[in-house]
Structures are given as structure tokens and as C-alpha cells.
Design goal:
mainly alpha; Hypothetical protein af1432; 68% helix; globular
Length: 285
């Protein structure tokens, strides 16, 4: 158990040395996004060394080949990626890497935590494609998947107090971040931002994690309000189907910043988000 009176950035970074290393594949993917060949090589290398992802990629490639009347029995990873599409394989690799990392950090918390993380990630990715906001769908996916990473840190080092916070938030019907600040002095969003900086993630992803509960104070980077809206929508759509799935308030300024209007035209977006998040949770369960 940690000393709840002394949770500072230095404390978080020092204790993070006891955590598993942040997935190298994610850092490599982020640094090669704008270079197709380099990104393809990174993905192929990771897929080859991950039997679970490799099996899924080859299976999907053979299904695609059958549908397009191409030769079946594909066993080459590069051919498989070309058939499925580098974007789809990149998404599978990112989700799988973060899923494994989360499971190692806090296996007892993972099921409900992971369902919510996937829902927020998929929601962010779809919002980035739906709105006119200048946000990379890949960055939105990663930021959504990692937005609550600070909760894993809190659970890992003080599970008892963490569960107390969740229970109080449910009973009082308020945001868990408020209760966390009462017990720890900081909330999981700030801790997550510190961790992301420590892992040398891009500055906009670090900021999106840190301010996902307080986007109005950091609207300059569009990824921040987008991730905030993604999390609120994932809760409102009940995509995680959990007892801790509280619908918190949504920032009107964040919606305006990403150009999101809630009218009849948005309903197909909700359908895509729901279908994709449930599919991803089944695939990486």
C-alpha cells in the first residue's frame, strides 16, 4: 500500500519501475505512422512474434482471399497484411499490446477496466473519422485505450483505497476523480498523464490522458476534447455494461471544439461504435 499523503509525480515514476515495461510495439508504431514501409515492417515483425495476433491476421487474410476469389492458404505475413489492410492490422496490434500490458499490471481489474478502455478507444477512433476535427484516428484510439491507465497504477499499489473510491463514487453518483483527489491528493487522470510522459508518448496523447475529465482547461489540442467526448459517449451508450459505468457530464465546449452536433445524423455513428467495440471486446477477451 502506498502512503496516500505523498503521491507526487516522483512517487508515480519511482513506483512505475516495478511495473512491466511499456509495450515497445506501441512506441514503434507511433514513430513510424507517417512512413508506410517502416510501419509495415514494424507490424510484420510484431505479428510474426505474437502467435495470437499472427493467427488472427492469417485467418482474416484467408477469409478475405476466399471472398475475393484469390488463392487460399495464405501463410505469409506481408501478404496477409496487404490483404487485410495495414490500418486494420495496426489497430489489432495496438489493442492486443495494450490488452496484454493491462492484464499484467492488474489482472483482477482487467475485465471491466478493459471493456471500458476498448469502448473509449473505438469511440475516439470513430469520432476522429466522423467529425472534421484534425485528429489522427490512430492517436485517438491509443489515447482512448490508455485514458484510464492511472487507475491501473492506483489499483496496483493501493487496491483497497482504490475500491473505496469506486464504491463512494457509485453511492454519491459523482465522478471517481473527485473521490480520488480526496483520498490520494491527485486523480487517476493526472497519474496517467505522468506515466504517459515517463513512457515518452507523444505530447498530445499525454495531455489527452491528463485532461480527459477536465477538457475545458486544455482545449488547444483537439485530441483532448475528443477523448473526453469519447469516454462520456462510451458510458452513455453503456458499451462496457458494468456496474461502475457512470454517465458523467459532457463538456459543451469540447463538443463544439470537435464540431460534434447531437442530431439524427449521429445515430449511424452510435451504431458503428457499438458494433465495433463489442466485436473488439469479444476478439480480445
Amino acid at each position: 500500500m502506498i502512503n496516500t499523503q505523498t503521491i507526487t509525480r516522483d512517487t508515480v515514476i519511482e513506483r512505475s519501475k516495478e511495473l512491466p515495461g511499456f509495450p515497445l510495439a506501441i512506441s514503434q508504431i507511433l514513430t513510424t505512422l507517417d512512413d508506410y514501409e517502416a510501419n509495415l515492417n514494424v507490424l510484420a515483425h510484431h505479428v510474426k512474434h505474437d502467435p495470437v495476433i499472427s493467427a488472427r491476421v492469417l485467418s482474416l487474410a484467408n477469409i478475405a482471399a476466399t471472398r475475393t476469389r484469390q488463392v487460399s492458404g495464405i501463410s505469409n505475413i506481408y501478404t496477409a497484411i496487404s490483404l487485410i489492410g495495414i490500418g486494420k492490422v495496426r489497430e489489432m496490434t495496438l489493442v492486443s499490446s495494450i490488452a496484454d500490458f493491462s492484464d499484467i499490471m492488474a489482472p483482477a481489474l482487467t475485465p471491466s477496466f478493459w471493456q471500458h478502455s476498448v469502448a473509449a478507444g473505438v469511440c475516439g477512433e470513430e469520432l476522429a473519422r466522423y467529425t472534421s476535427a484534425p485528429v489522427s484516428p490512430d492517436a485517438a484510439l491509443i489515447a482512448g485505450l490508455l485514458h484510464d491507465i492511472g487507475q491501473l497504477w492506483l489499483y496496483r499499489f493501493d487496491a483497497e483505497t482504490f475500491h473505496t473510491c469506486r464504491s463512494q463514487a457509485l453511492i454519491q453518483s459523482i465522478g471517481i476523480e473527485q473521490i480520488e483527489r480526496e483520498h490520494f491528493g491527485v486523480d487517476h487522470a493526472i497519474i496517467g498523464g505522468w506515466l504517459a510522459e515517463h513512457w515518452s508518448l507523444p505530447a498530445n496523447i499525454c495531455a489527452a490522458i491528463r485532461y480527459h475529465h477536465a477538457p475545458d482547461s486544455a482545449l488547444d489540442d483537439t485530441l483532448i476534447p475528443l477523448v473526453h467526448v469519447a469516454e462520456v459517449l462510451s458510458n452513455a451508450l453503456n458499451l462496457a455494461s458494468g456496474e461502475h459505468n457512470l454517465v458523467n457530464s459532457i463538456s459543451s465546449a469540447a463538443c463544439e471544439k470537435i464540431g460534434l452536433t447531437f442530431d439524427a445524423d449521429i445515430l449511424p455513428l452510435f451504431g458503428r461504435i457499438e458494433a465495433r467495440s463489442r466485436h473488439a471486446n469479444v476478439m480480445f477477451k
